[in-house]
Amino acid sequence: MPYVVNQKCIKCKYTDCVEVCPVDCFYEGENMLTIHPDECIDCGVCEPECPVEAITPDTDSEATDWIEANKKFSETWPNITKKKQSFPKEEQDKWAKEKNKKELFSEKGGSGD
Predict the structure, then answer these.
(1) What's the rounded Cα separation, in Å, for the pair 11 and 104?
(2) Residue ranges of E strands in 6-91
(3) Which helix (DSSP H) or strand (DSSP E) does residue 4 occupy?
(4) Taking Cα atoms as reference points, which of 35, 29, 38, 27 lies closest to residue 11?
(5) Rounded to 5 degrees, what are φ and ψ at 65?
């Protein structure tokens, strides 16, 4: 049961989770992260690190719409293994409160490490 990043990550993109991942299975998009399902070892250490609860097991109802997106984009976006400030803190905190952000998803890749 790999973990999945869902829409709660969009425009927040806190990267606390990538630093604790023992297998470096996070990939960076322009405005969110994804987890490569074939690289995730299901250890779960990333889940509590996300301040917006955007990481869930793939069996969770919030993961359903994001399983395929995580697989697809983790195959093309650059790998990210270090915590970084993706957006200004004020912007991250503002978007962290928003619930439905699916329409804001960008397919563009991020810069990676």
Answers:
(1) 8
(2) 26-28, 33-35, 55-57
(3) strand 3-5
(4) 29
(5) -75, -5
Q: How confident is the model at residue 112, as a pLDDT?
A: 83
DSSP E strand stretches across 20-106: 26-28, 33-35, 55-57
Residue corresponding to tokens 């069996």: 59
Which residues share a beta bridge with 55?
5
Read off the tokens for 83: 């915590």
How many residues would you count in the chain? 113
pTM for this prediction: 0.95
| pLDDT, averaged in runs of 10, over the chain (113 residues) | 94 95 97 97 96 95 93 97 92 91 96 84
How far apart CA 106 and CA 32 sit, in angstroms, is 8
